[in-house]
Amino acid sequence: MTLDLVVTNLNTRDAPAPVAIGIAGGRIAAIEREIVCDAPVIDAGGRLGLPGFVDTHVHLDKACLLGRCGHAHGDLKAAIATVARLKADFTEEDVLARAGRCLDRAIAHGTTRMRTHVEVDPRAGLRSFRALKRARSDYAWGIDLELCVFPQEGLTNDPGCEELLVAALEEGADVLGGCPYTDTDPIAQLDRLFELAADYDVALDLHLDFDLDASTGHLEDVCRRTEAFGRGGRVAVGHVTKLSAMTPSAFERAAARLAGAGVALTALPATDLYLMGRDRFADRPRGVTPAHELARRGVTASIATNNVQNPFTPFGDLSLMRMANLYANVAQVGPDGFDACLDLVTDGPARLMNLDDYGLRVGAAADLVVLDAADAGEAFADIAAPLWGLKRGRRSFERPRAALNPPDA
């Protein structure tokens, strides 16, 4: 066997003992207890290896805006309005620079696949989209970036927005998004988005129902259209914070409906925690959809970063290990659920994005992150630091372990 690289002494979530992974042509060619060949060798030292993390929902175009605006707003509506004022002045170079800061961090935290949502409307024009097309090319060495264009402030009520979305799809947008709850006619927006997605044969990824009133919502509207258009497995919804406020029986019905229609879901803990329940002083709700419970019921589910250092979420470091750990705290997941939470930043989002070359298996892309831990439980509890990673078999980042300097005895 001719190999380009061998990673030895690697612990995985599936194998009972350390394995060696042989890599050729950017793909995993062999997984054995031992591989002997002339290829260069990296000794993982008995640490845990995972397939690269997958971030299904990020907003690179409006990231890193701290210092450009105030953060004394009180709700989602004010955050949207603040960014709407700012984005009219975004330039391609500005968006590219801020996106680059985020992508640097994401790669260094072990993320190898990402879907970023991009606002396309008469205020932003196609500037942010074109900047992120450049970022997609510039950073292909370390991360695969999908671009999901969407109308943040409405579609039917925003003349010229649909034409810009179509132009972006013509220029190579990978996914079409939407935000029905900001539209004066949310049902008409859904109808048009499903039509456009079918016309251009792209997946749909929708911001949905970002409040805590469980008596109303558009989840059924999405499921019904997913079935009518035959798009099962190619539709996702993000936030859906109403699911966190449902009764157990209503939640079971919603989970069954999502699973049956083939609609995936992404929970966004940082933003949802920051914005939900701000009208209450006591007994403030968490507002985070229990994604691991949906996954247990057959729904394709993920956890993602969403906003980074902007009016929607004034913090963030693009670490999906930290995000999954935060989610587990919020959702009160104990050690017996740590593996399920890791699934929400690896296998689950890979299914959501229909990545057919993902995973630690022969034939998959050689995308790998090695964590400073021996096993999954330790890694998750510690929020273990990524030590190094591979993208298509090439070392994409590395960081030294912290060295302590106690005084001499």
Automatic annotation (TrEMBL):
Query: Which segments constitute the Amidohydrolase domain?
Result: 41-130, 154-374
Q: Which SUPFAM superfamilies match?
A: Composite domain of metallo-dependent hydrolases, Metallo-dependent hydrolases
Domain of life here? Bacteria
What protein name is recorded for this chain? Amidohydrolase family protein
The UniProt entry, under Pfam families, shows:
Amidohydro_3
